[in-house]
Q: What sequence folds into this?
């Protein structure tokens, strides 16, 4: 299964498409520049707070940004530990 990209990669493309810098985005949405830099570098997740701010800034819904983050996290866990999790989870059986 090919790796799914961290949402920071899409954020980077959105910033570049608008000829902005990470620092300018941080100032515009009212967060520390380190938060944006960490997201862009895949070291930090997009939180609900950041998703609301990005949604307002880019004119889309916060759910878009949180959806990207949750898809990334699920794909990463499935790739890294999926087999072990499948072995550990015991599904309920139907009553006899």
A:
């Amino acid at each position: 299964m090919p790796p799914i990209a961290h949402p920071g990669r899409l954020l980077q493309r959105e910033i570049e498409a608008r000829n902005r810098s990470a620092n300018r985005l941080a100032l515009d949405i009212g967060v520390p520049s380190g938060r944006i830099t960490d997201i862009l570098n895949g070291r930090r997740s997009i939180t609900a707070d950041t998703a609301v701010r990005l949604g307002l800034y880019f004119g889309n819904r916060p759910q878009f940004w949180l959806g990207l983050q949750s898809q990334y996290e699920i794909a990463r866990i499935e790739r890294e530990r999926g087999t072990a999790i499948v072995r550990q989870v015991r599904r309920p059986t139907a009553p006899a």
